[in-house]
Design brief:
This protein has helices spanning 2-21, 30-55. It is mainly alpha-helical. The longest helix has 26 residues, at 30-55. InterPro entries: NHR-like_dom_sf (IPR035500).
Length: 56
């Protein structure tokens, strides 16, 4: 379980780092930033769970 949480934490940090480097992202309203990040997180977790289910 700890390994899974560590992987998730690293993924979120990487996503945030990437987002901050996207031109114009930091100029967006904080609510818009959060919406974009939430959408990306949902897609990422969906891909992880789809992969996990197909691997079993």
């Amino acid at each position: 379980m700890t390994q899974v949480l560590t992987s998730i934490q690293l993924g979120v940090r990487g996503m945030l780092s990437f987002a901050m480097d996207v031109p114009g992202f930091q100029e967006l309203d904080s609510e818009d930033q959060a919406s974009l990040l939430k959408g990306k997180t949902a897609i990422s977790f969906s891909q992880v769970f789809t992969y996990s289910e197909s691997a079993t």
